[in-house]
Design goal:
mainly beta, 120 residues, 61% strand, elongated, 4-stranded antiparallel sheet, 0% helix
Amino acid sequence: QVQLVESGGGLVQTGGSLRLSCAASGSIFNLNAMGWYRQGPGKQRELVASFTSGGNTNYADSVKGRFTISRDNAKNTVYLQMNSLKPEDTAVYYCNADLYSIAYGRKTYWGKGTLVTVSS
């Protein structure tokens, strides 16, 4: 069984910083792509930042220059450093991974989400 476990959410004031972590565990054969999505109140889920299978990064325009995605391949972990946070960044942040597991082959997994609240 593959699991994605997020951590690092919380309450922060405008202009503050948070660092999210997502660790993938289980019988993982190869991690293809991994990243972060978010869903704000009354909004659709949207891509925040991700690593592609080729190792490139993608960022939503709204977070460019403020958020940085990084990863530790040895730990199957991806991080999201969020700086200069704004109230509009308030959302549940979900980790996403496209990976190959021994048991299930290639599949997309989602974490349960971690809440980030930015107060004005």
